[in-house]
Amino acid sequence: MMTAYERIKKCRYMKKNSDKNNESIRSNDLSDEFNLSVNESIDNIMDINNINDDNDDDIMDCCENEELEKKIDSTNMDVTDSFYNLEFNELYYDNDIEVEHMEEMENDIANRTLREKLHKWAINNIFTLKNSVISELLVILREEGHSELPKTAETLLRTKQCAFDAKVMKSGRGNNGVYTYFGIEKALNKMIASSEFEDNEEETVNILVNVDGVPLYKNSSQQFWPILIQIIDNNYTCTPEVVALYWGDSKPSSVDEFMDDFIEEARKLREGFQCNDHNYSFNILGFTCDTPARAYLKCCKGHGGFYACERCEVKGKTIKGRRNYIEMNCKLRTKTSFIEKTQAEHHQPNIVSPLTKLPNFDPVKQVFLESMHLLYQGVMKMIISMFIEPGNNNKLSKNNRNDLKVELSRMSAGILVEFERKTFNLDNFGYWKATQFRFFAGYTAPFIFKKYVSIEKYQHLMLFLVSTRILNSKPLVEKYHAFAREYLRLFFELTPHVYGPGTQVMNFHNLIHVTDDVLEMKAPLSTFSAFPFENCLGKIKKLIRSSKNPLAQVTRRLHEIQELNNSLVTRNILKNQCLRITTREWKISQNDYEESSQIKLGNLVIKNKEPDNIVMLESGKFFEITNIYLDTGSMLVAGTIMRLSLRNELFTILGQYWIPMLSQH
27 and 85 share a domain? Predict the structure, then answer.
């Protein structure tokens, strides 16, 4: 039986768009996620856009409707807030999706056999289900009369049809490892052939490449080194795909041998390729890797070397046992100087980076200073450690640390559902995930540290936090990237004065160069970060069932997933689009509307309870949702306007506001 939301979603596609000319849908170019317009548009609370004063005349002020009379009939609901009607035919997903497409999807589901349903169920749960469990289920079903089903999971999942070529490749420790290559074009065809991607009109397929190591077991040196690619497209979000996989006790000894298949195919694809009777050109935007992986691919000195900076020719100095890179205005590296090795100390001797073989590729500018490892697991983590860890002159007092822990614990109850990790235990912050450091830097640190650190440290910290916010937001980076560059340079210059000598290490030094990546890509840092690749690495690791030949296991699991032909592409259906509502009197009938606790719009979840019930309107006001009512073709939202004073102009520009907890937890 279809849920209320599914009925509404289906109705939206079935409706004609003949009355859309009466009301235009404005698109606001937001940075990270999505933008809803609620006659005053509901902006994504995660990345609030600048207030557009030019459109105020076209927007109905909700405050003028606060005295709107409500009429409630047989339901006897005591609702005294303003009601809003959200017409689903005004919710823009994609006008190219036709009614016939919806009917085909329904027919496909109805016509699936039990075997096909079991196949899909097994693949959707492949990270948690073992083949032995699936086989046991198949035996039970066969005993109950379903003799058409296979006896084993291997037959159901077509595992035996999987064949792959593997070759021996030496590890950095001199031991034998195993390597297999799947192919770039094969991965691209899989993504492009997706039904979600078929309407894409782009002639060029732009990809981002990631190379990284992932340990397989605790207390073991066994590890994978995959080569991953991801299509970067403004209209689609694409899941990274594996194009090569190495298994050994360290990274491959020869980077040339490891990258040879990839480089050769990438060179061939520069001539173009065909998929779905469409010709595409191929372009590598760049590599996004952590510092050790970048040094491995570029065959240059690691982050502890005297000449380790990848962007300038600064010479490091040893201060308090750490390599520091103090100079800020050294000669910059170029593609020519890198290829010619004009600063020989920067390069590994007797070896040339395979990246120099890629046509029209700059190994300096297009190997990015990846933001996940640099900003969050690097700088943000080090700043917290200086405030928390013992033996540090910048450590907070015991009372301040305890108060800070209490505030962080209390704050967790107010974190939105879109954020998966909601706990921030300072006692083990060294084990935080990158997403926790990102949340802390973007939403918590600007407010929570103000009470516990000195004014000097707080103002210095804000240079970093403001710059990070700017460089990760599309509207902000287009307007303020020059400010971000200067703030980061000032942050780096003042670091030893604030935290003491020996703190201008490589991660801090790279801050003066990271803005160059934004200008090179013409996109915010979040567009080409390693977060999706890190998520993919975690999933690859979950495909291992036992310690015996993990490469073969993962290869078979990837083949099984591919056989299902699940889409690797998702339309950015709410990105840069709007949701329109109007204020009016409503008579709520129990027979007409079904009360709901939440609505899902793309990746956005709006609820009628804290903390997921507060949205920001285009005018800058905050709206607290108290009730949600659904009907076939429309949606009613009841709520009140919250009157909050903004902190200051800076926080307004950055889209950050101070909203007190509405309940005591």
Answer: yes
Which stretches within 144-207 are classed as H helix?
Answer: 153-156, 184-192
pLDDT of 531: 94
The angle that helices 455-471 and 474-499 make with each other, rounded to 10 degrees, is: 150
Kindly state whether residue 601 falls inside one of the protein's structural domains: yes
Query: 425 and 301: one domain?
Result: no
Cis status of the peptide bond prior to 611, with omega within 30 of 0: yes
Give CA–CA dist 124/122, Å, rounded.
6
Strand ranges (DSSP E) for 550-621? 569-571, 582-583, 587-588, 594-596, 598-601, 604-607, 614-616
Helices (H) and strands (E) in the chain, counts: 21, 23
Residues 179 and 317 in one domain: yes
191 and 333 belong to one structural domain: yes
| Judgement on whether residues 216 and 261 belong to the same structural domain of the protein | yes
Rounded to 10 deg, the angle between the 255-269 and 291-298 helix axes is 80
Q: Average pLDDT in the 6-34 region?
A: 40
Q: Do the domain assignments include residue 102?
A: no
pLDDT for the residue 589: 59
What pLDDT, on a 0 to 100 scale, did the predictor assign at position 69?
34
Amino acid at 415: I
- Show Cβ contacts of residue 149 under 8 Å, excluding neighbours closer than 6 positions: 114, 115, 118, 138, 141, 142, 156
519 and 605 assigned to the same domain: no
Domain count, the chain: 4
Task: Decide which of 146 and 255 is more confident.
Answer: 255
Task: Determine the pLDDT at residue 197.
Answer: 61
**Confidence grade of residue 303 (pLDDT, cut at 50, 70, 90):** confident
From the number of C-beta atoms within 10 Å of its C-beta (0-12, 13-18, 19+), residue 35 rates as buried
Q: What is the model's pTM?
A: 0.75
CA–CA distance, 145 with 52 (Å, rounded to integer): 65
The pLDDT of residue 2 is: 52
Q: Where are the beta strands (DSSP E) in 251-296?
A: 273-275, 278-289
Confidence of residue 300 (pLDDT cuts 50, 70, 90): very high
Q: Give φ, ψ of 464 to 5 degrees.
A: -70, -45
168 occurs within a structural domain: yes
- Quote the pLDDT of residue 594: 76
Note down the domain range covering 142: 112-157
Q: Are residues 384 and 506 in the same domain?
A: yes
Asked, for residue 502, whether it belongs to a domain, the answer is yes
Closest C-alpha to 640, from 594, 583, 579:
583
* Backbone phi and psi for residue 390, each to the nearest 5 degrees, phi listed first: -70, 160
Whether 540 and 585 share a structural domain: no
The H-assigned helical ranges of 279-324 are 291-298
Q: By the 8 A CB rule, do 432 and 459 touch?
A: no
Report whether pLDDT(343) > 90: yes
